[in-house]
Amino acid sequence: MTKFLLSAAAAALFFVPTAASAQAIPQAIVAVVDVQRATSQCNACKTALNQLEVQVNSLKALQTSLETSLRNEANSIQTAVNALAGKQPDAALAARAQAFEKKQADAQRQLQGREQTFQRNRQYVLQQIGAKLDGVLTSVLARRGASVMVDAANVVRFAPALDVTTDVIAGLNASLTTLGTTAPAQAAAPAPKGR
């Protein structure tokens, strides 16, 4: 029986984890940053957002102008069609209707082009901010002695002492003095090669 106990005790020694072989994970020091606030409140960010807002307002004004013009033309054509009382339209009215459809398609293309340009400009601004933000976050993380940084949008509750958003805004202000709000022109697609 003692032989069995000694064998069991010896076997147990091999299966008991030892503290020396496991390395302890250091305690995490967490910092919280409101990324949305930081990227909208830095000086260059505010200026760029204002310029993008001007672009949006210009796009909306163009849309309203085109819609008004097209609505007036459509009403005029509809009035002329109603006056025919079921008769076939003459060549002039048919030509007006055809010209209206072309104007409508042209207006749609113009709006789509302006919308795409705005979206490229918006993405360009976000790209520039993102390029600087990563370095600023890394710098603030090291300077504040934190080992983990999380976005405030993903945290339910945190102590105000953990918030480093003002440090991030200051870092963005120092490293990001201006932002371009006009994206570089897109490269033209290469023409297909003939055989």
Topology of this structure?
Blueprint: H1 2-15, E1 30-33, H2 35-41, H3 43-83, H4 91-143, E2 148-151, H5 165-175
Parallel strand pairs: 1-2
- The level of helicity is 55-70%
Unreliable stretches (pLDDT < 50, length at least 5) are 4-16
Which structural category fits the helices and strands? Answer: mainly alpha
Give the helices and strands as they follow along the chain: HEHHHEH
Tell me what portion of residues adopts beta-strand conformation: under 5%
Question: What spatial form do the alpha-carbon principal axes imply?
Answer: elongated
Task: State the helix count.
Answer: 5
**Estimated radius of gyration:** 33 Å
Oligomer: single chain
Termini, distance in Å? 91 Å
- Please, what is the average pLDDT? 88
The largest β sheet comes out as: 2 strands, parallel
Overall structural domain count: 1
> What is the β-strand count?
2
Biggest sheet, spatial arrangement of strands: 1-2
